[in-house]
Protein: Helix-turn-helix domain-containing protein
Organism: Thiorhodococcus minor
Amino acid sequence: MSIDSIADAIEADAGEPIPGLREGLEEMRAGRSGRRYTPEQLLVRSARSTLGLSQQAFADLIRTPVATLRDWEQGRFTPPGAALRLMEIAVRHPEVVRDAAA
């Protein structure tokens, strides 16, 4: 199956043209993957998501600048060990983090 026929089928299903679709499919065929995430990034995002908080609210909760939290979530920097442990606790026991913040 050609890239064009796959893209045509996807766009027909979506009901509209999708900018960059053919280029993305071509990258997949060539083995070039998209964005990669580290386990630490996923852990930080998961912790925030589990608590249902915005970046600002979560940063306030853990007493960290929101810019630092964004850096962690975007993979520019890895959180220190204590912050990673806090993220693990937030994912496994969100009620503990909520109680501690109250």
In short: The radius of gyration is 19 Å. The chain has two domains: 1-34, 39-101. Residues 42 and 73 are 7 Å apart (CA to CA).
